[in-house]
Design a protein that fits this description.
Layout: E1 13-19, H1 26-34, E2 39-46, H2 53-58, E3 67-71, H3 78-88, E4 93-96, E5 102-103, H4 107-111, E6 120-123, E7 126-129, E8 138-139, E9 149-151, H5 153-158, E10 177-179, H6 180-185, H7 198-208, E11 213-216, E12 221-225, H8 236-250, H9 257-284, H10 288-293, H11 301-322
Parallel strand pairs: 1-2, 1-4, 2-3, 6-11, 7-12
Antiparallel strand pairs: 4-10, 5-12, 6-10, 7-8, 9-11
Length: 323
């Protein structure tokens, strides 16, 4: 498959933006979406921000009447904000845009030629630092994705398993155009109790119900990285919900043995992160029982805890000797 960017499409995409305390970046995100000819509407849902996010969003109007800014009565998380935006929108295709991020011109046009081949059409992400927006960009997947191709359920799940040298999984970060009719047919929406991995869960559940996911090389979604991003500030409860969503997915009857094995790997990967956090807290609280409990988990969770613990001991010992 090769990308075709010459075909013209009528406005058929709703861009969904959940925003919380995003006063510095919300206008950039909105303006990049409104600049796309294929975007029929931009729905911003402010999640009870305490800054000027709403004001700056309203000022980003371009006079086309395509922008709507809605305000949540209380902070309910990105999943609830996105669900509200989806309910309020009407376009046949839905595109998620984080309030920190932005689109390059032509990205939507480049993905829509595959609307007949897939229910979810995504591209690799360009990543840039907030401190150097116009600086060098690197793709999330890099050379692993050379041309557009279909992604299976097991491949998607395994693409989110944490690996050595990579602190977090990858494929859950993609921002596909999603076919509204498929979501409505299968009653799929974001799980509102999830504030971490909500994208992963929705994409995986859709794939388990037969969605076709096509992934292409980067076409213009720019993911802006920040040191204090909300996605990096997650709690033990967030990790617990992410881990246990795999249990719910495992119960779906359509999955193959290979699919269930992939889910098991993802479950254990998240549990490694969760148990390490719990172990740190137990040590700080001098709770020996809670600390021991973190080692009473299936392989490789206990081994991961032991390795990380030994690394910490080594680092602290080395620092003492030098200082």
């Amino acid at each position: 498959m090769t990308l075709n960017t010459k075909t013209q499409f009528p406005p058929c995409v709703a861009i969904i933006i959940a925003a919380y305390n995003s006063e510095k970046t919300i206008a950039r995100a909105i303006q990049s979406a409104l600049a796309e000819h294929e975007v029929a509407e931009v729905i911003v849902v402010d999640d009870a921000s305490t800054d000027d996010t709403v004001k700056n969003a309203m000022e980003a109007k371009d006079g086309s009447g395509r922008l709507r800014v809605l305000v949540q009565p209380e902070n309910a998380g990105p999943s609830a904000a996105r669900n509200r935006a989806i309910r309020e929108s009407k376009a046949p295709w839905l595109g998620i845009l984080d309030a920190d991020d932005f689109l390059l011109s032509g990205r939507t046009q480049a993905l829509l030629p595959y609307a007949d081949e897939a229910d979810f059409v995504a591209d690799d992400l360009w990543q840039v630092s907030e401190e150097n927006i116009d600086g060098p960009r690197r793709s999330l997947l890099g050379e692993a994705l050379q041309s557009p191709r279909a992604i299976s359920f097991s491949e998607f799940v395994l693409g989110n398993v944490t690996k050595k040298g990579r602190s977090r999984g990858e494929l859950g970060f993609i921002k596909p155009l999603m076919r509204r009719a498929f979501l409505e047919l299968h009653g799929i929406s974001y799980l509102e109790h999830m504030r971490l991995g909500e994208d992963y869960e929705l994409y995986a559940r859709a794939l388990a119900k037969g969605a076709r996911l096509l992934l292409a090389p980067a076409q213009g979604y720019v993911s802006v990285t920040r040191k204090n991003s909300l996605s990096a500030l997650h709690s033990e409860a967030d990790l617990l919900y992410l881990r246990d969503c795999d249990d719910a997915l495992m119960r779906m009857p359509s999955l193959s043995k290979e699919d269930r094995a992939a889910l098991r790997q993802h479950y254990l990967s998240v549990d490694c992160r969760l148990q390490w956090r719990l172990l740190i807290n137990a040590v700080k609280q001098r709770n020996a029982v809670a600390a021991v409990r973190t080692f009473m988990r299936p392989y490789p969770v206990a081994l991961s805890n032991m390795q990380l613990l030994l690394e910490q001991v080594f680092v602290r010992t080395f620092r003492r000797k030098r200082g």
